Amino acid sequence: MQEWQRKALEILPEMQDEILNSENPMQLWIEIVLSFDDAYEEPRNESFIKRVYDYEEWCLKQNEGETAGEHLPTCVATAFWEHIPTNNAARKDMPRWFSLDEVLANQHFFRYHLSDGNFEDLVNLYSKSDLKLARKKKGSAK
Predict the structure, then answer these.
(1) Phi/psi of residue 120, nearest 5 degrees
(2) Count: domains in the chain
(3) Residue 11: CB atoms within 10 Å
(4) Among 49, 52, 69, 127, which is least packed by CB within 10 angstroms?
(5) What is the extent of the structural domain holding 63?
(6) Is the peptide bond before 85 cis (omega within 30 degrees of 0)?
(7) Nearest to residue 124, comparing CAs of 102, 90, 95, 97?
(8) In this predicted model, what pLDDT tens digit does every residue of 32-74 receive, in sequence order?
């Protein structure tokens, strides 16, 4: 068993079959994306969503793999980041998981499947979430 599989089993134990049957990290990330989309269906599975982002964070810190399908940061960027904005609920939730600076710095991934207008809508979510946060801070100061 590879380290990426061990870590995935630790963080996403409910995906044991997919993890053990994946021949490489790219294949696993494709499976994770399918379950990630399901997690955004009502009722939302917040625990699974958070743990996918935990696994993403771990993968981004790894620098092993000779091919794109084995290099964990590449798998995250191409299988996961490119997909997130295509799921409306996940796209609207991005300000919780990514700063605007992160989205802009990695926009070639996040906008890959989006039109220019849809990417602009994504960026505008950050203005709205910043306003909500400002309102909450003002309200809590009272």
Answers:
(1) -60, -40
(2) 1
(3) 18
(4) 127
(5) 3-141
(6) no
(7) 95
(8) 999 999 999 999 999 999 999 999 999 999 987 777 778 999 9
